[in-house]
Amino acid sequence: MKKTIHKADTRGHANHGWLKSHHTFSFAGYQNIERMNFGMLRVLNDDVVQPKMGFGTHPHRNMEIISIPISGALSHKDSMDNKRAIEVGEVQVMSAGTGLTHSEFNDSKTDEVNFLQLWIIPEKQEVEPYYNQKFFEEEERKNKFQTLVSPRTNQVEGSLPINQQGYIAMIDLDAGIDTEYELKNGAYFFLIDGEVEVADEILYKRDAIGITETDNIVIKAIKKSKLLVIDVPMI
Asked: Average pLDDT of 209-223?
């Protein structure tokens, strides 16, 4: 088994006033040659957007982009005529493919928005752009893994598709619960909240561990926890 541990306080950080962002991997002004990616997972940003602020219209191409709100709601508008808000409990997927533009905005006058944005390198370039979002029932991830995203070519029922052999799952663990995760590729465990032990390593809020070269991982919840798993090809 091979482990790569990324503690929360080792992430890159940017404070633009309207946006505060923590970068797990090199992004924009944060460049670290030792933190470029975990396999096909290229970006994992933990963003907080201030009220009545947001990202202006900007382009993407040949990237699978997944957004997961943690708190608040983020309005979305894109060149495919999608105009919707993404709320807590929902997941948004965009296959940028041949190219698209979009904007994201916090419409609230009082509340921040906190969301995770993931970029996964696609297995196929120049695909037709695609957008979707879905609400996932909380009860379906209580002490069990709920698949949010899976490969378009081998899609798990009820999940959102991406153009890569990658899977994203979430689990809400009660304190004292033990479980196992079966790896499909290499797995990157990102603790959204709580305290867990993953493969004999203790993770606190926003800590992460990437694991390869094994088939199963034991996870023990020390406190009530929310854990995200990004399972992606390593090459």
From this structure: 98
> b/e string for 3-16 if b means 16 or more Cβ within 10 A?
eeebebeebbeeee
Beta bridge partners of 225: 173
What's residue 92's pLDDT?
Answer: 98
Q: How many CA atoms lie within 13 A of 91 on its CB side?
A: 22
Backbone φ, ψ for residue 38 (5° rounding): -125, 100
- Does domain 2-232 fall under CATH 3.30.360.10? My reply is no
Region 83-87 average pLDDT: 95
- What residue ranges do the domains of the chain occupy? 2-232
The letter for the amino acid at 99 is: G
pLDDT of 235 reads 87
Give CA–CA dist 174/187, Å, rounded. Answer: 22
* CA quadruple 3, 4, 7, 13: dihedral, nearest 10: -160
Q: Pairing mode, if any, of strands 64-71 and 54-60?
A: unpaired
